[in-house]
């Protein structure tokens, strides 16, 4: 009787590829798919059991189902001139009804009932493009972390927009103050012209007294706009100095 062909579909079908560097554990995955209408028992073996950790290394796959197996290569000193001789074998057998003792099943199995597939191990070093991508990812990680750790940096554009709004308000206040200063200057000019006209009119003693009183009020009124101009200038300088500093 000829040996049965493997019933399971393996992905990858022939090679298990491990990509270095091999200074840490390197893991690759093996998928076993059962396309039949019967349950299938499987077992994974290797020629270098001390170099690999396989999880799960045995089990049962129901009809139409699949299982993913992690094959973990332990760290070692890689020599590119040394060709890998490591191999894996996936051994399978149709599960009998109500199977419970897996060890007894494999021990009592007949060779003609066993199916197997062999896979070769391939070691690969990362390419130059992979190295560049890894370096870029390493550089990008601290930048992302610093952005998360410093929310104030993300708030800078908002603060800048707030400063622009405040500056517009100050500019509007300055325009209003400038308008008021112009009005005060115009009133001051009118008062001076009225004073000059009053001095040209002939005066009696009563008129002299009234003129003296009027001139006193004129001087007081003339000094008031000048004082307001000084206060407005100080106010504008305060706001401009606040936003410049």
TrEMBL record:
It is found in: Cell junction, Tight junction; Cell membrane; Endoplasmic reticulum membrane. Residues 7-124 form the MSP domain. Gene3D superfamilies: Immunoglobulins (2.60.40.10). It is a single-pass type IV membrane protein. Keywords: Acetylation, Cell junction, Cell membrane, Coiled coil, Disulfide bond, Endoplasmic reticulum, Membrane, Phosphoprotein, Tight junction, Transmembrane, Transmembrane helix. Residues 167-194 form a coiled coil. Its main location: other. The chain crosses the membrane at residues 222-241. GO terms for cellular component: bicellular tight junction; endoplasmic reticulum membrane; plasma membrane. One of its GO terms (molecular function) is FFAT motif binding. GO terms for biological process: neuron projection development. InterPro entries: Ig-like_fold, MSP_dom, PapD-like_sf, VAP. PANTHER family: VESICLE-ASSOCIATED MEMBRANE PROTEIN-ASSOCIATED PROTEIN (PTHR10809), VESICLE-ASSOCIATED MEMBRANE PROTEIN-ASSOCIATED PROTEIN A (PTHR10809:SF155). Endoplasmic reticulum (ER)-anchored protein that mediates the formation of contact sites between the ER and endosomes via interaction with FFAT motif-containing proteins such as STARD3 or WDR44. STARD3-VAPA interaction enables cholesterol transfer from the ER to endosomes. Via interaction with WDR44 participates in neosynthesized protein export. In addition, recruited to the plasma membrane through OSBPL3 binding. The OSBPL3-VAPA complex stimulates RRAS signaling which in turn attenuates integrin beta-1 (ITGB1) activation at the cell surface. With OSBPL3, may regulate ER morphology. Belongs to the VAMP-associated protein (VAP) (TC 9.B.17) family. This is Vesicle-associated membrane protein-associated protein A. It comes from Seriola lalandi dorsalis. The lineage of its organism: Eukaryota, Metazoa, Chordata, Craniata, Vertebrata.
């Amino acid at each position: 009787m000829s040996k049965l062909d493997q019933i399971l579909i393996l992905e990858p079908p022939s090679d298990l590829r491990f990509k270095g560097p091999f200074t840490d554990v390197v893991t690759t995955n093996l998928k076993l798919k059962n396309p039949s209408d019967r349950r299938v028992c499987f077992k994974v073996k290797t020629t270098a059991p001390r170099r690999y950790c396989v999880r799960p290394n045995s089990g049962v796959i129901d009809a139409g189902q699949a299982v993913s197996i992690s094959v973990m290569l332990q760290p070692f000193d890689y020599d590119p001139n040394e060709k890998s001789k490591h191999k894996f074998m996936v051994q399978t057998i149709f599960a009998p009804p109500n199977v419970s003792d897996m060890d007894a099943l494999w021990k009592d199995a007949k060779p003609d009932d066993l199916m197997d597939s062999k896979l070769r191990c391939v070691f690969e070093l990362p390419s130059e493009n992979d190295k560049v991508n890894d370096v870029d990812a390493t550089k990008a990680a601290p930048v992302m972390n610093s952005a998360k750790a410093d929310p104030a940096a993300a708030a800078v554009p908002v603060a800048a927009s707030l400063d622009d709004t405040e500056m517009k308000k100050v500019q509007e206040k300055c325009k209003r103050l400038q308008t008021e200063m112009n009005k005060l200057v115009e009133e001051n000019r009118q008062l001076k012209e009225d004073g000059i006209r009053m001095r040209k009119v002939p005066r009696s003693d009563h008129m002299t007294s009234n003129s003296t009183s009027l001139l006193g009020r004129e001087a007081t009124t003339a000094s008031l706009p000048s004082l307001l101009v000084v206060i407005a200038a100080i106010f504008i300088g305060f706001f401009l100095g606040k936003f410049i500093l």
